[in-house]
Structures are given as structure tokens and as C-alpha cells.
Design a protein that fits this description.
Layout lengths: L1 H17 L2 E8 L7 E9 L4 E9 L5 E8 L3 E7 L2 E7 L4 E5 L8 H5 L6 E4 L1 E2 L7 H21 L4 H14 L6 H17 L2
Amino acid sequence: MRKNLCLLIGWCMGMGVALAHPTCIEGRATDYAGRKLQLSTITDGLSEQRRLLASDTVASDGRFRLEFELSETRMLCLDLGHYEGRLYAEPGKHYEIALPERQDLTEAERFNPYFRPKLILLSLIDPPADDLNLLIDRFDETADSVWEDCLFGGGRPELIEAGVNRLEEEFPADEHSFFGRYKRYNYAMLVNLYR
């Protein structure tokens, strides 16, 4: 019995590893030459605990390549000093990105315990039309106008319902289970804000 249990646990762990796919982010940014880039994912949303996925020192010609394994779609964070770049990555995909102009932390920012880098979405170079990042970006733009309508309408329940219906009409397909969860999270924030 114990041997079978060990085999089952080993098989399950092997399946988890087998489901991980090599994923790659690369680009070229000459003003980051010599700088170490660190790519992480948030493992706990409340404490913002992170897990390092990959790091690379940008070459003198500006090239960098971050390779890592993903078993599910994740929001990734790239530490860029004054900025924190965000990207939604899917397992097994390759992303080419453009970095913003380099802006290092000032001495005051480095020693300020409350400093938070400015969050930005990383720019993809030639993404496919069905890329998850583009879908989320379009959804966020539309959701912002829904939030404004609800805010200036006093948060009436019928406005919230109309806003959610509008978003569901415009973004009906749940091609990505990650995107479906992302939508539900945004709907919940909208509903709970006005309760």
C-alpha cells in the first residue's frame, strides 16, 4: 500500500513538471546595457510575495533573453528601477518586448520604504491579434468607461448591471480561462465598490 502511494505521488509530481512549458521573453534596449533584469511572478496577492522566474544581464548591444518554465498563464513583473513592467504570459509562448527609456531610482526613492515603482504594461513587438495582453488591455479600457459611468451615476445597481452586461457583450468569448477569471475579478470589484 505504501509503495503504491509513493508511486501515485511521484506520478502526480511528474505530471506537474510535464505540464510546464518553456516560455521566453526577449528584446533589445541599449540604455539598459549592463543592467541585470529580474523577472518574477506574484505568488501571494495580499503580501505581494514574489518568486523569481528568470534573470539576465543585458548585453552591451542591448539584447536580453529571459527563459523560464510556466505551467499556467501568469502575470509577470519585470523590475526596471523606477518602473515595474507587467506582462501576462502563457505557457510555451515567445514574447518580444520593448522596454521604456531607462530611469534609475533616485537616492531618495531607494531609501524610501514606501516607494512603489510606477506600474506599466510592457509593449509587445508584433503580437498576434489574439494575444492575451491585447485582450486584457482592450477590456481594461472599456471597463474604465464603465467604472466612470457607475461613479458618476452614484453606483446605482441598474448601472452596474448594465455595465457588466456591456462588457460581457463586448468580450463574450472566454477563450482563456485566465481572462474569464480576470473579468470576474473586475466585476466583483465593481459590484463590491458600490455596496
